[in-house]
Design goal:
heterodimer; A: Pyruvate Kinase, Chain: A, domain 1; 5-stranded mixed β-sheet; about 60% helix; B: alpha+beta; ATP Synthase, domain 1; 5-stranded antiparallel β-sheet; 2 helices; about 45% strand
Amino acid sequence: MPSLKDLKNRIESVKSTRKITKAMQMVAAAKLRRAQEAAEDSRPYAKRFNAVMAGLAASVGGSDSAPKLLRGTGSDQVHLLVVMTAERGLCGGFNSNIAKLARQKAAELKGAGKTVKVLTVGKKGRDALKRDLGSDFVGHVDLSEVKRIGYVNAQTIAKDILTRFDAGEFDVATIFYSEFVNVVTQIPTAQQIIPASFEAEEGESSGAVYDYEPGEEQILADLLPRGVATQIFSGLLENGASEQGARMSAMDNATRNAGEMIDKLTIEFNRSRQAVITNELIEIISGAEAL
Amino acid sequence: MAQTMQFDLVSPERALASLQASAVQIPGAEGDMTAMPSHAPTITTLRPGVLKVESPEGNSEYLVTGGFAEIAGDSLSVLAERAIPMAEMTRDQMNDLIEEAREMYKTAKEEDQPHGLVEDAAKLLADMEALGTHMSL
């Protein structure tokens, strides 16, 4: 039976925990709004880009001279998994869900006799995958110093991946990130970026025959690396919004739990205080009776 | 014949402009070109340069660092890697861009990269420097 003082201390400590989680929830809510705006602002670019690329890819894609980034290397032996997670924890299942998907995919590929290489973006994913896939790590991108994800960050990652691709380090690249649906739902997603696949949205194509300046293939060669960066960028932004959403609901839960715990502890505290008073009374009465 | 066309300027981070324009001068990779309403459908890549927009409401200029433009008769979309309104441009920013291009050229040269990347970087640097002089801030 804990003493009154113990209970009191306990209540105080849970109260301060509740304050912290509440504050974190509010910070996450504010950041979420910004992250969501950033994600929405990037959509027009990605949409148009994909529409143009889809048209280009359709007209050039079949030929043998198509760039490697579009056609692939002709084999799918070595897979690069780019696992994008958050730099920080305390956001519910966000990081572990992405890690789980990556782990599954890696196991699947290994089962089929393929070679797996892992590039991690974000510290938490690295920590989560270290035990199972530690020997397959080929690199890590640290974004902990970055306050606001910019296109430059995506370009840096894309450049890293493209250099590896040019060096023949892998055949297929897949990015893992969490798609933001709403505050309570984030879907871990795997998306293949090399060789590139572009899907034109229905009704997007204008049907016009374009002149290309310079030639189609040159444009395609110029744009494909940008396509990789664009896809990584939107992945990063989706991830940013998802992370804040996940943290918000996780902290909301934590705040509520702390509240419940405080209620329970307060009842226990009141009961034991009453027990102490009753006890003292009994002692006084029986003392008086003994005289 | 339409007198204006829908003009959109978007960068990966945000949409910068969406308005009706009567003519837009684009710094194409193979030379500048001006797109007016009912231009033949064209897709061109951009070099670093100045994008000039003429619209009934007034003219505006943007600095773009590459990307591509899609001209489709009654609409024009410019997808720029980076786009900055000329009014917000400062000498420092320009210097940063030039410095960045120079850095890229240097690493490309040192690492002896394939695909004519060295030439690309050299061209980018030259374009940037020309742009800096042109702006004469």
